[in-house]
């Protein structure tokens, strides 16, 4: 069982920045493929960014060039640096474990609210 705890959300003005963190329990963080998702009110949850255990990344077109996903295996922590925020980035952001050592194994965090004011 893996527990994920997000932090770092909040209220920010358009053009501002936030850094989300996702702390994972256990000793296999370095073996995990992970991702960030978001869900805005009335919309479906969508993939924001993903990172493999080897450090390969991919991003949704809507956030390319503005958001950066990274990980610190020594701290068991996943990050999402969000710059040039827009009101349409407002959503609940959740981290997710996709795979552990290549095997599908899904865990979700509880989510953190990001609100961008215009």
Describe this entry's structure for a reader.
This protein is mainly β and 118 residues long. Helix content is 0%, strand content 56%. It has no helices and 11 strands. The chain has strands at 4-7, 10-13, 18-24, 32-39, 46-51, 57-59, 67-72, 77-82, 91-100, 103-108, 112-117. The strands form 2 sheets. Strands 2, 4, 5, 6, 9, 10 and 11 form a 7-stranded mixed beta sheet that branches. It has a 4-stranded antiparallel beta sheet with strand order 1-3-8-7, with no helix packed on it. A hairpin with a 2-residue loop joins strand 9 (91-100) and strand 10 (103-108). The protein is globular, with a radius of gyration of 13 Å. The model has no long low-confidence stretch (mean pLDDT 97).
How is the secondary structure organized here?
Layout: E1 4-7, E2 10-13, E3 18-24, E4 32-39, E5 46-51, E6 57-59, E7 67-72, E8 77-82, E9 91-100, E10 103-108, E11 112-117
Parallel strand pairs: 2-11
Antiparallel strand pairs: 1-3, 3-8, 4-5, 4-9, 5-6, 7-8, 9-10, 9-11
Strand residue percentage: over 45%
pLDDT < 50 stretches: none
| Helical content band | under 10%
Biggest β-sheet, characterized? 7 strands, mixed
Give, in order, the helices and strands. Answer: EEEEEEEEEEE
**How many helices?**
0
Distance between the termini: 40 Å
Helix vs. strand class: mainly beta
Rg calc:
13 Å
Question: What is the molecular shape?
Answer: globular
SS elements, strand count? 11
Report the average pLDDT across residues: 97
